[in-house]
C-alpha cells in the first residue's frame, strides 16, 4: 500500500503581503500528478488546509477543485487543523463522493477510513481532527454521567483519542495483524518549530509525547512546517511552501509512505516545487548593491543594512536592485543604544513579550498571578480566533 502524506497547505495565506495562491495551486497540481504517477492508494491531508477559519472565496474554490481532481485518482482523507474551522471544512461531508473523506468531528475518531480492497490488502486510517482540549475534553472523558473529566492538555485528549483507536484496532484484528495509520495535528515532543505556526498552548503546555501514538504503523502529523521525523514511524510532512524566513532552509516536500504486511517499510520525501527561494542578506548597502547581491536578484529577500547611519535613498536603491525584496531594515553595526526600542518579531513567544512589558512598566518581574492572568487572556484570544 502506498500513501501520500501532506499537511499545512494554508490556502489563502500571504508572505509579507505577497499573495501565494498561485504558488499553492502549483503545489496542488504537483500533488495530483504525483498521486497519479505513483499510483498511490490514498492521499492524507493532516490539517490546516486553510489559513484561517473564514477563508477567501478563491481559496475555497481552489480546495474544491483540488479535492474533486484528487478523488478521481485515489482515496482522499482530510482533517482540520488549528487554523481551520472544523464545522466549515466538514460541512456536507456525508454527501461527498465515496473516494473523499473529510473527518472533522470527535465522534468518528475510532471509525477508520478503510483504504484498499480485501482484508489482506487494507490499511486502516484513523483520521483525528485537531483536538482543542477546552472543546473536546468532556466529550472524550467517557459517559455523560461520569464525574471524571480529562485534564486540560493536548496530551490528555490525544491520549484518550488514541485509547479509542487502539481499542477499535484490537477489536478488528482478532489476532490478525492489521496495518494502521493515524492522522493528527499536534506539537509532538522532539519536533522543531518555525516562526509561522500558530501557538496552540493550553494551560501553558503545547507538547505531546511521541509515545502517545504507540500501537500503529505510521503517524501522519500536521502543524509544524518543517519536514521531520520525531520518532520511528512518526513524521511531519511539513508545509508545501515556506511561510516565513525561518523556513528558508527547509526542503519542502510530500511524504511517500509504503506499507507491507510487515508494517512500515518506506518513507520517501518527494521535493515540492519551489516558486522562489527565500534568503537573508546582511551588510553595508554598498556591499549588498555590489557583487554580493548578484545571486539573489530573483529571491524573496529579508535585507538588513548595517551602515553606521541609515543610507540616503536606501529603500528605493534596494527595490531597484532587488525587485522581490520583502523586508528591508536598517540596523547599525554599532549596535542599538542601551534602553532603546526592542524589535518584536513573530518568532517571539507572545507570553514572554507580555511579561517583559509588565516588568518594563512596573519595574518588577510579573508575579505568578499576573503570569496566569496573561496566559488566560492569551488562550481566550486564540480560542476566539479558532472559532471565528
Question: Can you tell me about this structure?
Answer:
The radius of gyration is 23 Å and the shape is globular. α3 links the parallel β5 and β6. The chain has three domains: 270 residues, Metallo-dependent phosphatases (Purple Acid Phosphatase, chain A, domain 2), CATH 3.60.21; 53 residues; 37 residues. The protein contains nine helices and 19 strands. It is α/β, with parallel strands linked by helices and 388 residues long. A six-stranded mixed sheet has the order 6-5-4-1-15-16, covered by helices on one side.
Listing every helix as H and every strand as E from the N terminus to the C terminus, the arrangement reads: EEEHEHEHEEEHHEEEEEEEEEHEHEHH
Percent helix: 25-40%
The end-to-end span amounts to 38 Å
Number of structural domains:
3
Task: Quote the beta fraction.
Answer: 15-25%
CATH class of the largest domain equals Alpha Beta
- The CATH homologous superfamily of the largest domain is named Metallo-dependent phosphatases
Amino acid at each position: 500500500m502506498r500513501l501520500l502524506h501532506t499537511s499545512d497547505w494554508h490556502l489563502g495565506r500571504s508572505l509579507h503581503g505577497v499573495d501565494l495562491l498561485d504558488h499553492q495551486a502549483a503545489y496542488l497540481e504537483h500533488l495530483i500528478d504525483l498521486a497519479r504517477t505513483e499510483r498511490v492508494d490514498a492521499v492524507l491531508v493532516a490539517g490546516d488546509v486553510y489559513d484561517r477559519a473564514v477563508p477567501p472565496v478563491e481559496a475555497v474554490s481552489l480546495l474544491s477543485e483540488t479535492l474533486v481532481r484528487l478523488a478521481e485518482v485515489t482515496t482522499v482523507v482530510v482533517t482540520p487543523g488549528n487554523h481551520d474551522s472544523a464545522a466549515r471544512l466538514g460541512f456536507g461531508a456525508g454527501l461527498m463522493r465515496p473516494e473523499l473523506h473529510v473527518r472533522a468531528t470527535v465522534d468518528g475518531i475510532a471509525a477508520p477510513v478503510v483504504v484498499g480492497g480485501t482484508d489482506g490488502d487494507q490499511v486502516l486510517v484513523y483520521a483525528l481532527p485537531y483536538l482543542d482540549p477546552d472543546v473536546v475534553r468532556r466529550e472524550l472523558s467517557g459517559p455523560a454521567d461520569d464525574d471524571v473529566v480529562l485534564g486540560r492538555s493536548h496530551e490528555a485528549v490525544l491520549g484518550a483519542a488514541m485509547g479509542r483507536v487502539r481499542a477499535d484496532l484490537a477489536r478488528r484484528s482478532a489476532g490478525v495483524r492489521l496495518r494502521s495509520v493515524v492522522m493528527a495535528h499536534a506539537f509532538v515532543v522532539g519536533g522543531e518549530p518555525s516562526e509561522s505556526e500558530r501557538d496552540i498552548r493550553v494551560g501553558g503546555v503545547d507538547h505531546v509525547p511521541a509515545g502517545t501514538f504507540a500501537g500503529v504503523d505510521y503517524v501522519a502529523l500536521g502543524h509544524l512546517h518543517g519536514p521531520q521525523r520525531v520518532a520511528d514511524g512518526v513524521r511531519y510532512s511539513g508545509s508545501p511552501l515556506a511561510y516565513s524566513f525561518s523556513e528558508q532552509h527547509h526542503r519542502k516536500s510530500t511524504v511517500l509512505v509504503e506499507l507491507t504486511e510487515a508494517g512500515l517499510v518506506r518513507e520517501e520525501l518527494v521535493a515540492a516545487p519551489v516558486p522562489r527561494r527565500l534568503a537573508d542578506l546582511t551588510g553595508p548597502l554598498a556591499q549588498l548593491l555590489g557583487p554580493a547581491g548578484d545571486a539573489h536578484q530573483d529571491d524573496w529577500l529579508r535585507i538588513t543594512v548595517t551602515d553606521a547611519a541609515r543610507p540616503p535613498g536606501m529603500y528605493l536603491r534596494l527595490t531597484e536592485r532587488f525587485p522581490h525584496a520583502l523586508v528591508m531594515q536598517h540596523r547599525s553595526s554599532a549596535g542599538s543604544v542601551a534602553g532603546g526600542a526592542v524589535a518584536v518579531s513573530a518568532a517571539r513567544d507572545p507570553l514572554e513579550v507580555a511579561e517583559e512589558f509588565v516588568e518594563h512598566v512596573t519595574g518588577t518581574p510579573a508575579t505568578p498571578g499576573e503570569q496566569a492572568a496573561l496566559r488566560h487572556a492569551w488562550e481566550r484570544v486564540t480560542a476566539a480566533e479558532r472559532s471565528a
